[in-house]
Amino acid sequence: MLAVIGIGYLLEIVEIAWLLWVVLGLKLGIVIFSYHIPEKEVMRHTAGLHSVLQICLRPEVTAFLLSSLLMLFAHGAYYTFFSIYLVEHGYDKGFVGWLWATGVICEIGIFFIMPWLMRYFRLKAMLIFSFACAMLRFVLIGQYADWPVMIVFAQILHAATYGAHHIAAMMVIHQFFQGRHQAKGQAIYTSAAYGVGGALGAVCSGYTWDWLGAEITFLISAAAALAGLVLIAWKMRSFNH
Predict the structure, then answer these.
(1) Count of C-beta atoms within a 10 Å radius of residue 144
(2) Which pLDDT belongs to residue 240?
(3) What does pTM read for this prediction?
Protein backbone atom coordinates (compact mmCIF):
# COMPACT_ATOMS: atom_id res chain seq x y z
CA MET A 1 0.00 0.00 0.00
CA LEU A 2 2.78 2.43 0.94
CA ALA A 3 4.62 1.53 -2.25
CA VAL A 4 1.54 2.38 -4.34
CA ILE A 5 1.14 5.72 -2.55
CA GLY A 6 4.83 6.46 -3.06
CA ILE A 7 4.61 5.72 -6.77
CA GLY A 8 1.55 7.96 -7.03
CA TYR A 9 3.36 10.87 -5.42
CA LEU A 10 6.38 10.27 -7.64
CA LEU A 11 4.27 10.32 -10.79
CA GLU A 12 2.60 13.53 -9.65
CA ILE A 13 5.99 15.18 -9.04
CA VAL A 14 7.23 14.06 -12.47
CA GLU A 15 4.08 15.40 -14.13
CA ILE A 16 4.40 18.78 -12.41
CA ALA A 17 8.12 18.98 -13.24
CA TRP A 18 7.40 18.17 -16.90
CA LEU A 19 4.72 20.86 -16.99
CA LEU A 20 7.12 23.43 -15.56
CA TRP A 21 9.62 22.63 -18.32
CA VAL A 22 6.90 23.03 -20.94
CA VAL A 23 5.93 26.47 -19.58
CA LEU A 24 9.61 27.44 -19.40
CA GLY A 25 10.05 26.39 -23.02
CA LEU A 26 7.10 28.53 -24.08
CA LYS A 27 8.51 31.55 -22.26
CA LEU A 28 11.92 31.01 -23.87
CA GLY A 29 10.15 30.85 -27.21
CA ILE A 30 8.72 34.31 -26.59
CA VAL A 31 12.21 35.61 -25.82
CA ILE A 32 13.68 34.06 -28.96
CA PHE A 33 10.94 35.33 -31.27
CA SER A 34 11.17 38.81 -29.75
CA TYR A 35 14.68 39.11 -31.18
CA HIS A 36 13.23 38.70 -34.68
CA ILE A 37 10.96 41.71 -34.32
CA PRO A 38 12.43 44.50 -36.45
CA GLU A 39 13.57 47.60 -34.63
CA LYS A 40 11.39 50.64 -35.16
CA GLU A 41 13.21 53.70 -36.39
CA VAL A 42 13.61 56.23 -33.60
CA MET A 43 12.10 59.52 -34.66
CA ARG A 44 12.02 62.84 -32.91
CA HIS A 45 8.50 63.99 -32.06
CA THR A 46 7.07 67.00 -30.41
CA ALA A 47 4.83 66.37 -27.43
CA GLY A 48 1.93 68.24 -29.01
CA LEU A 49 -0.22 71.07 -27.75
CA HIS A 50 -1.97 69.06 -25.03
CA SER A 51 -0.58 67.92 -21.69
CA VAL A 52 -0.87 64.35 -20.47
CA LEU A 53 -3.57 65.42 -18.01
CA GLN A 54 -5.59 67.05 -20.79
CA ILE A 55 -5.34 63.87 -22.86
CA CYS A 56 -6.44 61.69 -19.94
CA LEU A 57 -9.45 63.93 -19.30
CA ARG A 58 -10.80 63.43 -22.81
CA PRO A 59 -13.98 61.31 -22.46
CA GLU A 60 -12.82 58.55 -24.80
CA VAL A 61 -9.44 58.28 -23.09
CA THR A 62 -10.96 58.22 -19.60
CA ALA A 63 -13.46 55.58 -20.72
CA PHE A 64 -10.68 53.46 -22.24
CA LEU A 65 -8.55 53.62 -19.08
CA LEU A 66 -11.54 52.76 -16.88
CA SER A 67 -12.46 49.86 -19.15
CA SER A 68 -8.89 48.53 -18.93
CA LEU A 69 -9.09 48.79 -15.15
CA LEU A 70 -12.34 46.82 -15.23
CA MET A 71 -10.83 44.12 -17.45
CA LEU A 72 -8.03 43.46 -14.98
CA PHE A 73 -10.45 43.80 -12.06
CA ALA A 74 -12.52 41.06 -13.69
CA HIS A 75 -9.44 38.83 -13.82
CA GLY A 76 -8.72 39.28 -10.11
CA ALA A 77 -10.66 36.22 -8.97
CA TYR A 78 -9.28 34.17 -11.85
CA TYR A 79 -5.62 34.87 -11.11
CA THR A 80 -6.12 34.50 -7.35
CA PHE A 81 -8.45 31.53 -6.94
CA PHE A 82 -8.71 29.63 -10.23
CA SER A 83 -6.42 26.76 -9.22
CA ILE A 84 -7.95 26.44 -5.75
CA TYR A 85 -11.44 26.58 -7.24
CA LEU A 86 -10.79 23.72 -9.67
CA VAL A 87 -9.08 21.51 -7.09
CA GLU A 88 -12.09 21.96 -4.82
CA HIS A 89 -14.25 20.72 -7.70
CA GLY A 90 -12.23 17.52 -7.91
CA TYR A 91 -9.78 18.33 -10.70
CA ASP A 92 -6.31 16.80 -10.59
CA LYS A 93 -3.51 19.29 -9.91
CA GLY A 94 -1.68 18.13 -13.01
CA PHE A 95 -4.75 18.85 -15.13
CA VAL A 96 -5.03 22.30 -13.56
CA GLY A 97 -1.42 22.94 -14.52
CA TRP A 98 -2.12 21.94 -18.10
CA LEU A 99 -5.04 24.36 -18.14
CA TRP A 100 -2.68 27.19 -17.24
CA ALA A 101 -0.31 26.03 -19.98
CA THR A 102 -3.22 26.04 -22.44
CA GLY A 103 -3.90 29.67 -21.61
CA VAL A 104 -0.24 30.56 -22.22
CA ILE A 105 -0.18 28.70 -25.55
CA CYS A 106 -3.33 30.49 -26.74
CA GLU A 107 -1.90 33.81 -25.59
CA ILE A 108 1.25 33.23 -27.68
CA GLY A 109 -0.86 32.10 -30.63
CA ILE A 110 -2.86 35.31 -30.74
CA PHE A 111 0.37 37.31 -30.82
CA PHE A 112 1.33 35.53 -34.05
CA ILE A 113 -2.00 36.08 -35.84
CA MET A 114 -2.67 39.58 -34.51
CA PRO A 115 -1.01 41.37 -37.48
CA TRP A 116 -3.37 39.48 -39.80
CA LEU A 117 -6.42 40.30 -37.66
CA MET A 118 -5.53 43.98 -37.61
CA ARG A 119 -5.83 44.08 -41.40
CA TYR A 120 -9.52 43.25 -41.21
CA PHE A 121 -10.77 44.49 -37.82
CA ARG A 122 -10.68 47.87 -36.13
CA LEU A 123 -9.11 48.23 -32.70
CA LYS A 124 -12.46 49.18 -31.18
CA ALA A 125 -14.03 45.98 -32.53
CA MET A 126 -11.18 43.94 -31.07
CA LEU A 127 -11.65 45.55 -27.67
CA ILE A 128 -15.39 44.91 -27.70
CA PHE A 129 -14.80 41.31 -28.75
CA SER A 130 -12.27 40.77 -25.94
CA PHE A 131 -14.70 42.10 -23.33
CA ALA A 132 -17.49 39.90 -24.70
CA CYS A 133 -15.17 36.89 -24.46
CA ALA A 134 -14.30 37.85 -20.88
CA MET A 135 -17.98 37.91 -19.96
CA LEU A 136 -18.50 34.47 -21.47
CA ARG A 137 -15.32 33.11 -19.91
CA PHE A 138 -16.15 34.05 -16.34
CA VAL A 139 -19.74 32.87 -16.64
CA LEU A 140 -18.46 29.48 -17.85
CA ILE A 141 -15.93 29.23 -15.02
CA GLY A 142 -18.47 30.19 -12.38
CA GLN A 143 -21.42 28.16 -13.60
CA TYR A 144 -19.88 25.15 -15.36
CA ALA A 145 -16.91 24.23 -13.21
CA ASP A 146 -17.93 20.56 -13.26
CA TRP A 147 -17.79 20.46 -17.07
CA PRO A 148 -14.14 19.92 -18.18
CA VAL A 149 -14.94 20.84 -21.78
CA MET A 150 -16.32 24.21 -20.68
CA ILE A 151 -13.30 24.90 -18.50
CA VAL A 152 -10.90 24.07 -21.34
CA PHE A 153 -12.87 26.35 -23.67
CA ALA A 154 -12.75 29.10 -21.03
CA GLN A 155 -8.96 28.78 -20.98
CA ILE A 156 -8.80 29.04 -24.76
CA LEU A 157 -10.62 32.37 -24.43
CA HIS A 158 -7.52 33.66 -22.64
CA ALA A 159 -6.25 34.44 -26.14
CA ALA A 160 -8.90 37.15 -26.39
CA THR A 161 -9.34 38.30 -22.80
CA TYR A 162 -5.63 38.87 -22.25
CA GLY A 163 -3.72 38.56 -25.53
CA ALA A 164 -5.97 40.41 -27.96
CA HIS A 165 -7.07 42.96 -25.37
CA HIS A 166 -3.52 43.84 -24.36
CA ILE A 167 -2.26 44.23 -27.93
CA ALA A 168 -5.26 46.32 -28.99
CA ALA A 169 -4.97 48.40 -25.81
CA MET A 170 -1.31 49.22 -26.50
CA MET A 171 -2.20 50.27 -30.04
CA VAL A 172 -4.96 52.52 -28.71
CA ILE A 173 -2.55 54.07 -26.22
CA HIS A 174 -0.19 54.91 -29.08
CA GLN A 175 -3.08 56.62 -30.87
CA PHE A 176 -4.12 58.67 -27.84
CA PHE A 177 -0.65 59.58 -26.60
CA GLN A 178 1.48 60.91 -29.43
CA GLY A 179 5.18 61.74 -29.58
CA ARG A 180 7.03 61.97 -26.29
CA HIS A 181 3.76 61.29 -24.44
CA GLN A 182 3.73 57.64 -25.57
CA ALA A 183 5.93 56.39 -22.74
CA LYS A 184 3.79 58.28 -20.21
CA GLY A 185 0.66 56.87 -21.78
CA GLN A 186 1.95 53.32 -21.44
CA ALA A 187 2.84 53.96 -17.81
CA ILE A 188 -0.62 55.37 -17.09
CA TYR A 189 -2.29 52.41 -18.81
CA THR A 190 -0.16 49.86 -16.94
CA SER A 191 -0.75 51.57 -13.59
CA ALA A 192 -4.50 51.88 -14.10
CA ALA A 193 -5.07 48.40 -15.50
CA TYR A 194 -2.50 46.07 -13.97
CA GLY A 195 -1.80 48.16 -10.89
CA VAL A 196 -5.13 49.51 -9.64
CA GLY A 197 -7.42 47.12 -11.52
CA GLY A 198 -5.46 43.97 -10.74
CA ALA A 199 -5.00 44.86 -7.07
CA LEU A 200 -8.64 45.81 -6.54
CA GLY A 201 -9.79 42.67 -8.32
CA ALA A 202 -7.64 40.42 -6.16
CA VAL A 203 -8.63 42.09 -2.87
CA CYS A 204 -12.34 42.43 -3.62
CA SER A 205 -12.60 38.87 -4.90
CA GLY A 206 -11.17 37.66 -1.61
CA TYR A 207 -14.05 39.26 0.28
CA THR A 208 -16.77 38.20 -2.16
CA TRP A 209 -15.34 34.67 -2.22
CA ASP A 210 -15.91 34.40 1.53
CA TRP A 211 -19.19 36.28 1.70
CA LEU A 212 -20.97 35.31 -1.52
CA GLY A 213 -19.18 32.22 -2.81
CA ALA A 214 -17.17 31.38 -5.89
CA GLU A 215 -20.02 31.34 -8.39
CA ILE A 216 -21.22 34.85 -7.49
CA THR A 217 -17.62 36.11 -7.49
CA PHE A 218 -17.13 35.01 -11.09
CA LEU A 219 -20.49 36.53 -12.03
CA ILE A 220 -19.21 39.81 -10.60
CA SER A 221 -16.16 39.41 -12.82
CA ALA A 222 -18.45 38.94 -15.82
CA ALA A 223 -20.41 42.05 -14.80
CA ALA A 224 -17.18 44.06 -14.62
CA ALA A 225 -16.33 42.91 -18.15
CA LEU A 226 -19.80 43.96 -19.29
CA ALA A 227 -19.28 47.41 -17.77
CA GLY A 228 -15.99 47.71 -19.66
CA LEU A 229 -17.67 46.72 -22.91
CA VAL A 230 -20.37 49.36 -22.42
CA LEU A 231 -17.73 52.04 -21.80
CA ILE A 232 -15.88 51.14 -25.00
CA ALA A 233 -19.04 51.01 -27.13
CA TRP A 234 -20.52 54.20 -25.63
CA LYS A 235 -17.63 56.58 -25.12
CA MET A 236 -15.28 55.54 -27.93
CA ARG A 237 -17.77 56.05 -30.75
CA SER A 238 -15.50 58.46 -32.57
CA PHE A 239 -12.46 56.15 -32.32
CA ASN A 240 -12.16 54.46 -35.73
CA HIS A 241 -8.48 53.51 -36.02
Answers:
(1) 14
(2) 58
(3) 0.81
